[in-house]
Amino acid sequence: MDEQNAEPGVGARAATIYALVAHRLAAFYDHGYWITQDQGATLCSEWLLRSKQRMPMKDRRQLSDLSDQLASQIKTSLSREAGLYTAHELMESLDPRHISELGASIMEECVRVLKEADAE
Asked: How many angstroms separate the CA atoms of 24 and 87, rounded?
């Protein structure tokens, strides 16, 4: 199979969900805006292209939906101040050089959510 057309594995898909959660929370806490499913699917495509991977629109929408659900859960469980901190920390941790315990726990949740969705 051509490496550029490789289907992303669990790790890449979970990382994409993580990136979408970070962007959703940052948009919400910084600008009062919630990213739509279609916008999330477009962001998903952009993240996958960074690793030279592609995914059908149906699958990108699934990742967008999973990130929406997870980001919504996080948003409802945090105060505004904690949400601002979380959004900032997640955006910072998109840089692989940034070590974040919070980011690691959110990544674990992304993997869990993805595995649950794959099992259905």
From this structure: 8
Give the pTM: 0.90
State how far the Cα of 14 lies from the Cα of 11, in Å rounded to an integer: 5
Residue matched to tokens 């993580």: 18
pLDDT tens by residue, 96-114: 899 999 999 999 999 999 9
User: Residue 35 phi/psi, 5° resolution?
Assistant: -70, 135
